[in-house]
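Q: Protein A?
A:
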Amino acid sequence: MAHFIRPPAPADSGAGQLGWARLLVKGRPLTVPAQHTSRSAQILLFGRNFIKHPKMLGSLIPSSRFLVNKVLSEVEWARARVFLEYGPGVGTFTTEILRRMRPDAVLIALETNADFVRFLRVRVRDERLHVVHGSAADADAALARLNLRQADYVISGIPYTTMPPHVREIILRKTHSVLHPTGAFLVYQFTRTVLPYLQQVFGLVHQDFEPLNVMPARLFFCRHQPDRANGERNGQRTNGAGRSAPLQPVVPDPIGSARPPLSSD
């Protein structure tokens, strides 16, 4: 059974400022920084990277706790054992996933930004977390390195509307292929522009909205659906030969497209 203890922080570790909480599972310590105490470091790093990569990060600050809670409310924590996170950024979702998930679960976080990768590897110490410096397009390879084939949940805030179409298609197809039949792909964005692309790959897409965030966020909860008689199989549109057809171009939302993409955090 897991329990928390709070040991005194070493003077030279910086843990006094981070508020470390130590989790013991089967006698082995897992250390996770308390999220609220490292908020200032998160905001500073996030802001610097917003200036450097404005198209990749659509906000000066990470996601709000209201957004985090609404997205993660879709998770069945008692059964979920494998999580993928695309674009963890400074770990706003990451630390909360770790706090809620089972002691024997695994979280693989795929991040392309080297600054965020270093930040997570230093600040979030948990044996269940695997921070990968790589693209969401390599989700299957990241799972395979841990001898895993499928994920129960995939959480994503990366900006699908600004990435090249072929990269978006690869990510969505790969996500569909590695998602467990009873799992869910949980997406948060600033606009509804990604919706048609999600609907072309996933059979079921439920929408929600979280106004208490900077900026207000659109949520998309995607799941598999059984074969349908109209030529769509496992949530993917197919052509006559049974191969997945390319995702069709979608006319941008004239209102939403003027807004920056959702930050990856």
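Q: Protein B?
A:
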Amino acid sequence: MKLIITFSLFLSPYLFALDFEQDSSLENQRGMTNLLGADTYMRCSKHLQNPDAKTYELSYMRTKSMPLSPFAGNYEPKFLPVSSMPDTLQIFTMDVLNNDVNDGNQGTQMDALGHFGHLDTPWDGESELDIEDASFFNGFKGREVKPSNDSPLLKLGIETVPPIITSAIMIDVKKYAFNGKSMGAGEYISVEDFKKSVAQSSINARGILPGDVILIYTGWSENYQDPDITKLYYSMAPGISYNLAKYLASKQVVAVGLDTPFVDALSDASNPIALPEGTPKNMAFPVHHYFLTQAGVHTLENFKLKEMADDSVELSCVMILPLMVKGSSASSIRPVAIGSPTSS
């Protein structure tokens, strides 16, 4: 009996992987997630079967007092009175969200490829914003993606993203590249910082495989607090350089996430840090631009990575399931990683 159970545990991920089929009609609206399938599912199997594996919650609790994105409105859940129906024994509870909240871009979340596009020339900030000929991922134009101001995304929305179940690499740049010091606002993780960190980690021999998810711990999440008294966390942050974005995309990774509100760096306005060489001009979020419009790599934000970093879980199985919200540019998520602690 023990042999049968062991064999079933070994075989079931393989059979599950064989049953997994991408929707071919969405291939041109998906970037690196087209790499997901049997190979990436099988990479997860050893972590799922390891009796020493631990589950890591990578999302923060969603509350009205959490740090809030300045771009996504207030987040004010309202909890309704308990209700019932005449002549029934049951009672039920419900809650609603406030008007004009962009729920998908608050808290731990991921962006759809249609979240960003780009113009041929900078907008002057005064004339009407015409996106008809704006460019989006895979050559889609604004008129195809969002034909009117009140239109949902007709292409590249979050509903086109498949379940992301694959191997994840967690790189602790605070530990390896910055000698245990948390990164500061506006600081960039360079290609050299990343390579140096990988070289010192347990991932060095394995390397990065196509279909991996990359998680980067900077230590900036030490500024995350709920309730958000200081309002520091979202006002500025470290991030990755444009050249590192290009390097990671060249490795065909599916998604990149940090323990920060953005994958881009945002300097303290009173102490600005110069842009690294190679950063394109006239872009407030150049890493978003490259990942979402050029490479088809999803951006992951507000990831809770400290516990993984403390346990030195540098390789794991990650599961990230965006909501099937038709036409939305982002989704709140509850990602989990399953891996084995290696720190003492």
